[in-house]
């Protein structure tokens, strides 16, 4: 989850590193640090626990001399608490070698014991310091930093991206990658490394993807990549499709506020170019059309918010493509001997494309012979490269830890997949396809209507409820995953108890939680879609209202049946049932953000969390 950045070039590396870390802080903010080889040839390190602001203060008080080679790190703690000693970089070889790390070295304990037996003294509680001392020992034997990496990486088990700089080699940063992200930025006479392109996009949009089990050495304007065995590798180039301004707040109070405002654009960008002559056609999928005609099952793999988008997508895939769909938590999939075959499509969903649980599940699915497809928002990331095909969402950078616009873009991409496969399999009547395509194209305007007409009232409601200690969420059919998503957002950024339930489960236990004054959000389905389902949800509302619950209903415009039963009604535009989730979730995102703001919490960087989960 940590953010890492490396730089060699003509500019002052301290400025490059700190600005890169600022763009990567969403990946971890327990501590931060940089190491720079200054113009005098000395390695200087500054690091502090806490957010990046503390490192900035330290650099103002005790600046590093100008240098053109450096590495930087912002941490999400795994081994050892967030202290100055545990912050990266870690030093070895008489403080001449600096190392930073993203991931977990699973066999660190045995390696540490080995090094302690050789007389090495450790000053931190981290697994990273083990790698630093191993690299130092290998470097002393060879005098070659790349050769030292090659000697060490096969001894490390788990997930790691390591970067190192050594006093002996100004103008050189070396990195290695296994099961953890790393990309290269190509500037004019300068070269960058980063956990993702946000680290360097303000300087260049030309990038190279570093593959699994590869070592990279960067010098000003020069890149050398080899595999762990020492064979030369030609990295895959790509162009970053957004610029640095897209990852700035742009005057918004928070990144989350900005990204909620971009939900209409995220949907529009995901659909753009994928409607041709009134039909959904996804060019990235056309190479799999023959396979689609013969598949007998779809398995969706995801975690967190992406998992809830998969639950919504299940309804669309089964309705339009007429294929049975299982949605599984990626971190459970590979540990239970899953059954997939050559006629199974495994769809992975990950905003970052680096979610470690999902990546390992994709690899397991591929090993078992399944066809793999990823839905992802990040170019050059690992999961798309490990998959047979990819549908990018084009939602743009999402910096806030709590996912919002990526969620609606993921659902949109799943709907594109379902409509494309339904057309190929001829399971989707033309008139249904045409109507769904028309509704999909109309969604951005409808989401914008909610932002224009319901946001202020929803935020006001959230401020009134700032002292609430527990909120429940109910939904049926596609409203159930939206209830789960609403609860997760509130937990993530407001730190209060929140749970989502299928409304039909109320009488099977959860109704015991209802007491006078208990706030309950209810996602009310359109009576135009299924009057029976609508009536059942109204009955659910009456059941909990009779026990004193305070009802906040999310219902379509013109639904008067809900008025006598609800204390508050947040309106959404008319849409057919399958498209309501993309509308109903917007007030829930706004509410969670508003309540956290009213409590004075940091909505972008909630405690204990990071944006990209790159460890299992």
From TrEMBL:
<protein>
    <recommendedName>
        <fullName>Glutamine--fructose-6-phosphate aminotransferase [isomerizing]</fullName>
        <ecNumber>2.6.1.16</ecNumber>
    </recommendedName>
</protein>
<dbReference type="InterPro" id="IPR035466">
    <property type="entry name" value="GlmS/AgaS_SIS"/>
</dbReference>
<dbReference type="GO" id="GO:0006047">
    <property type="term" value="P:UDP-N-acetylglucosamine metabolic process"/>
</dbReference>
<dbReference type="GO" id="GO:0005975">
    <property type="term" value="P:carbohydrate metabolic process"/>
</dbReference>
<dbReference type="InterPro" id="IPR005855">
    <property type="entry name" value="GFAT"/>
</dbReference>
<keyword id="KW-0032">Aminotransferase</keyword>
<dbReference type="GO" id="GO:0097367">
    <property type="term" value="F:carbohydrate derivative binding"/>
</dbReference>
<comment type="subunit">
    <text>Homodimer.</text>
</comment>
<feature type="domain" description="SIS">
    <location>
        <begin position="288"/>
        <end position="427"/>
    </location>
</feature>
<feature type="active site" description="For Fru-6P isomerization activity">
    <location>
        <position position="611"/>
    </location>
</feature>
<dbReference type="GO" id="GO:0006002">
    <property type="term" value="P:fructose 6-phosphate metabolic process"/>
</dbReference>
<dbReference type="InterPro" id="IPR047084">
    <property type="entry name" value="GFAT_N"/>
</dbReference>
<keyword id="KW-0315">Glutamine amidotransferase</keyword>
<dbReference type="Pfam" id="PF13522">
    <property type="entry name" value="GATase_6"/>
</dbReference>
<feature type="domain" description="Glutamine amidotransferase type-2">
    <location>
        <begin position="2"/>
        <end position="221"/>
    </location>
</feature>
<dbReference type="InterPro" id="IPR035490">
    <property type="entry name" value="GlmS/FrlB_SIS"/>
</dbReference>
<dbReference type="InterPro" id="IPR029055">
    <property type="entry name" value="Ntn_hydrolases_N"/>
</dbReference>
<dbReference type="GO" id="GO:0004360">
    <property type="term" value="F:glutamine-fructose-6-phosphate transaminase (isomerizing) activity"/>
</dbReference>
<comment type="function">
    <text>Catalyzes the first step in hexosamine metabolism, converting fructose-6P into glucosamine-6P using glutamine as a nitrogen source.</text>
</comment>
<dbReference type="InterPro" id="IPR017932">
    <property type="entry name" value="GATase_2_dom"/>
</dbReference>
<keyword id="KW-0677">Repeat</keyword>
<keyword id="KW-0963">Cytoplasm</keyword>
<feature type="active site" description="Nucleophile; for GATase activity">
    <location>
        <position position="2"/>
    </location>
</feature>
<dbReference type="InterPro" id="IPR001347">
    <property type="entry name" value="SIS_dom"/>
</dbReference>
<dbReference type="InterPro" id="IPR046348">
    <property type="entry name" value="SIS_dom_sf"/>
</dbReference>
<feature type="domain" description="SIS">
    <location>
        <begin position="461"/>
        <end position="606"/>
    </location>
</feature>
<dbReference type="Pfam" id="PF01380">
    <property type="entry name" value="SIS"/>
</dbReference>
<keyword id="KW-0808">Transferase</keyword>
<dbReference type="GO" id="GO:0005829">
    <property type="term" value="C:cytosol"/>
</dbReference>
<dbReference type="GO" id="GO:0006487">
    <property type="term" value="P:protein N-linked glycosylation"/>
</dbReference>
């Amino acid at each position: 989850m940590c953010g890492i950045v490396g730089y060699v070039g003509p500019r002052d590396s301290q400025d490059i590193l700190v600005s890169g870390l600022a763009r990567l802080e969403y990946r971890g903010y327990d501590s931060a640090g940089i190491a720079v080889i200054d113009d005098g040839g000395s390695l200087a390190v500054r690091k502090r626990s806490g957010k990046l602001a503390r490192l900035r203060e330290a650099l103002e008080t005790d600046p590093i001399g100008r240098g053109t080679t450096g590495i930087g790190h912002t941490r999400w703690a795994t081994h050892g608490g967030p202290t100055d000693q545990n912050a990266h970089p870690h030093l070895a070889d008489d403080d001449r070698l600096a190392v930073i790390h993203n991931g977990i070295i699973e066999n660190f304990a045995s390696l540490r014991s080995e090094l302690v037996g050789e007389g090495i003294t450790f000053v931190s509680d981290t697994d990273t310091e083990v790698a630093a001392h191993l690299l130092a020992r290998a470097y002393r034997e060879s005098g070659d930093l790349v050769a030292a990496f090659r000697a060490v990486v096969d001894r490390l088990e788990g997930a790691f991206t390591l970067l190192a700089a050594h006093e002996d080699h100004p103008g050189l940063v070396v990195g290695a990658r296994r099961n953890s992200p790393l990309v290269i930025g190509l500037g004019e006479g300068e070269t960058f490394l980063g956990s993702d392109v946000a680290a360097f996009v303000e300087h260049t949009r030309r990038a190279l993807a570093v593959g699994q089990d590869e070592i990279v050495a960067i010098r000003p304007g020069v890149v050398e990549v080899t595999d762990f065995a020492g064979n030369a590798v030609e990295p895959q180039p790509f162009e970053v499709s957004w610029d640095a301004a897209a990852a700035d707040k742009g005057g918004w109070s928070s990144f989350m506020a900005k990204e909620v405002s971009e939900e209409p654009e995220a949907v529009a960008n995901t659909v753009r170019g994928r409607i041709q002559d009134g039909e959904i056609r996804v060019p990235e999928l056309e190479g799999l059309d023959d396979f689609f005609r013969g598949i007998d099952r779809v398995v969706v793999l995801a975690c967190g918010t992406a998992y809830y988008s998969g639950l919504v997508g299940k309804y669309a895939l089964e309705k339009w493509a007429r294929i049975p769909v299982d949605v599984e938590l990626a971190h459970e999939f590979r540990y239970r001997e899953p059954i997939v075959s050559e006629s199974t499509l495994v769809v992975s969903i990950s905003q970052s494309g680096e979610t470690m649980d999902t990546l390992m599940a994709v690899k397991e699915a591929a090993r078992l012979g399944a066809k793999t497809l990823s839905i992802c928002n990040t170019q050059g990331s690992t999961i798309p490269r490990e998959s047979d095909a990819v549908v990018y969402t084009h939602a743009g950078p999402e910096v806030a830890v709590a996912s919002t616009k990526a969620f609606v873009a993921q659902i949109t991409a799943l709907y594109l997949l379902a409509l494309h496969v339904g057309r190929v399999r001829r399971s989707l009547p033309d008139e249904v396809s045409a109507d769904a395509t028309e509704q999909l194209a109309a969604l951005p305007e409808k989401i914008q209507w909610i932002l224009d007409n319901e946001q202020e009232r929803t935020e006001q409601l959230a401020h009134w409820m700032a002292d609430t200690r527990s909120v429940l969420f109910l939904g049926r059919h596609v409203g159930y995953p939206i209830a789960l998503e609403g609860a997760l957002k509130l937990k993530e950024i407001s730190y209060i108890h929140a749970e989502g339930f299928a409304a039909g489960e109320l009488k099977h236990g959860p109704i015991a939680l209802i007491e006078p004054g208990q706030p309950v959000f209810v996602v009310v389905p359109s009576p135009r879609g299924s009057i029976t389902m609508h009536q059942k949800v109204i009955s659910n509302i009456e059941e909990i209202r009779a026990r004193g619950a305070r009802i906040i209903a999310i219902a379509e415009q013109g639904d008067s049946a809900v008025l006598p039963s609800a204390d508050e009604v947040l309106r959404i535009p008319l849409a057919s049932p399958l498209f309501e989730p993309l509308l109903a979730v917007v007030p829930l995102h706004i509410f969670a953000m508003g309540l956290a703001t009213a409590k004075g919490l940091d909505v972008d960087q909630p405690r204990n969390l990071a944006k990209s989960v790159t460890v299992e």
